[in-house]
Amino acid sequence: MDTFGFLLQGLGTALDPMMLLYALIGVTLGTAVGVLPGIGPALTVALLLPVTYGLDPAGSLIMFAGIYYGGMYGGSTTSILLNTPGESASIVTALEGNKMARAGRGGPALATAAIGSFVAGLLATLALAFLAPHVVKLALVFGPREYFALMMLAFVTVSAAFGESTLKGLTSLFIGLALALVGIDQLTGQARLSFGVPQLLDGIEVTTLAVAMFALGEALFVAAQGPQADAGVLAVKGSVRMTAADWSRSWKSWLRGTAIGFPIGSMPAGGADIASFLSYATERKMSKHPEEFGHGAIEGVAGPEAANNAAAAGTLVPLLTLGLPTTATAAIMLAGFQQFGLQPGPLLFISAPQLVWGLIASLLIANVMLVVLNLPLIRFWILLLRIPTPWLYGGILVFATLGTLGVNPSPVELTMLVLFGLLGYLMRLYGYPIAPVVVGLILGPMAEQQLRRALAISQGDPVTLVQSPVAAFLLGLAALALILPMVMRARGKGQVLSQVAGSDD
Predict the structure, then answer these.
(1) 0.70 surpassed by pTM
(2) Which residues contact 271 (CB under 8 A, 6 or more apart)?
(3) How far apart are CA 182 and CA 200, in angstroms?
(4) How many other C-beta atoms can be found within 10 angstroms of the C-beta atom of residue 254?
(5) What whole-number distance in Å separates Cα of residue 415 and Cα of residue 412?
(6) Distance of CA 148 to the CA centre of its chain
(7) Helical H segments across 15-143, by residue range
(8) Is the model more confident about 58 or about 124?
(9) CA nearest 149: which of 392, 465, 467, 481?
(10) Confidence (pLDDT) at 270
(11) Which residues contact 444 (CB under 8 A, 6 or more apart)?
(12) DSSP 52
């Protein structure tokens, strides 16, 4: 069956009335939580991960995809109206979007962000559907050493791409790898680092770690900053509709943002923040109104927001085809698969094609639902921005705790939730990235298993790890991934900052 056939089969699954309901619940929850100030897509997905428990795998993952896309959509609202980006990728949206809102054009800014996200999400999801089968064919030739090299690429990628310091990223990764050792050894059956606690024999729950590190750690970090004046929400004056001139200036930016965002998001060392910064620099160079940049240029909202959402869809290419998470949100989505015993990768397309293609098709449906929800309900989402910060993060603490206990009611689980929450707070305090810890816990056991299998086959000869051309290429790519993100980030951000500085002079 060709890609069209698989996609039509997936649409048949996704258009089931119950699946549509799950998708609607997912996009509504994702948007509602993602629109809250200071809460990015990773925290949104981590916080709502326990909500998907108890459903069948297809329904859970479709709801999860809706939460993911909803969280991405919601972030633009806080960037434009509050000048408070929920993540680094939304910083560029805030640069021009907040200036538009202050000039009384918040409605068109929100509209171009929503429509641009829809266009980019739609095109990028179609690209995902047609690209994924080709990546899967290549990955099916992988043996233990190739999979180990792939895991090494994942480890280096998340360590180098997150945070300002590669050393701090590697330190976070090794914390996650140490936590991955807890439990029963998969090959020998021996207990490791369980300290006589029976609940630790099954290892540390990824859900508990993700919710604690992202939700509790963030809430504690915000509380530690002390009382702060809440930023005033800018009113949306006039119509939220875009004028003909706005459409004329935006549609090319949407397409350029998509063309920049999807391939960068698909790269192991890419990311939405790099894509959005490069898109902003491109729009400034190609705009017929460069004098407006820094003062509220609509292209500066349309392009980066499209690039942001295209990159979000692009991250699903390595995640679904190779089991390789390249962002914090993708790492939590990997945990969502694993709660059902599913491991994303080439074998998943063979063992559960209906599930995978139903998930991809649901992304198309979620995009349509989101643009229908966001444009008419913009004024409703704005009301959520008026929730006081203490109430907001107090609610996050309660919801995260109840969600975790609802999944696994145990004093040991609650203790780990608190301890990991404190660890998340300390890591934020000293500038250590959170995502490598989660990736280390998820991929650590798989990397160990593949390494031991490869060495067993070669009778202990470590040279076998580089004798395969594919494995050698992936390990070389991992070495490159240590340097490339720093260079791309410095170049992209340097261009943006110099141009912003120039516009302020």
Answers:
(1) yes
(2) 89, 161, 264, 265, 311, 326, 327, 485
(3) 7
(4) 25
(5) 5
(6) 23
(7) 17-34, 41-48, 57-82, 91-102, 106-139
(8) 124
(9) 465
(10) 55
(11) 176, 177, 179, 180, 181
(12) G
For 87, list phi and psi in degrees, rounded to 5.
-155, 170
Cβ atoms of residues 209 and 50 within 8 Å: no
3-state secondary structure (DSSP) of residue 184 = strand
In 3-state terms, the chain is what percent helix, strand and coil (to 5)? 75, 0, 25
Neighbours of 170 (CB within 10 A): 18
Residue 490 has which token pair?
């410095």
Rg (CA), the chain: 22
How large a percentage of the chain has pLDDT more than 70? 85
Rounded to an integer, the average pLDDT of 442-467 is 83
184 conformational bin, left if phi > 0, alpha if psi -120 to 50, beta if neither: beta
The yes-or-no verdict on residue 124 having pLDDT over 60 is yes
> Identity (one letter) of the amino acid at 505?
D
Judged by average pLDDT, the poorest of 62-66, 395-399, 409-413, 495-499 is 495-499
For residue 50, the 8-state DSSP code is G
The first and second tokens of residue 160, run together, are 């180098």
Q: Which residues of 228-247 are buried (b: 16+ CB within 10 A; e: fewer)?
A: eebeebbebeeebebeeebb
Nearest Cα residue to 96 out of 109, 77, 78, 114: 109
pLDDT at 497 exceeding the cut of 60: no
Banded model confidence at residue 228, pLDDT cuts 50, 70, 90 = low
What is the spatial distance between Cα 65 and Cα 76, in angstroms, rounded to a whole number?
18
Q: What pLDDT is recorded for position 426?
A: 93
Asked if residue 341 lies in contact with residue 288, where contact means CB atoms within 8 angstroms, the answer is no
DSSP-H helix ranges across 232-315? 244-266, 272-286, 299-314
Length, in residues, of the chain: 505
| Nearest residue to 479 via CA among 85, 153, 232, 100 | 153
Distance CA 494, CA 480 (A): 21
Paired tokens of 451: 């390494």
Q: Tokens 């995009």 belong to which residue? A: 367
**Window from 112-126, 356-370, 394-408 with minimum mean pLDDT:** 394-408
* Residue located via tokens 């606690």: 197
Name the residue with higher pLDDT: 235 or 340: 340
346 with 140: CB under 8 angstroms?
yes
DSSP character for 243?
A: P
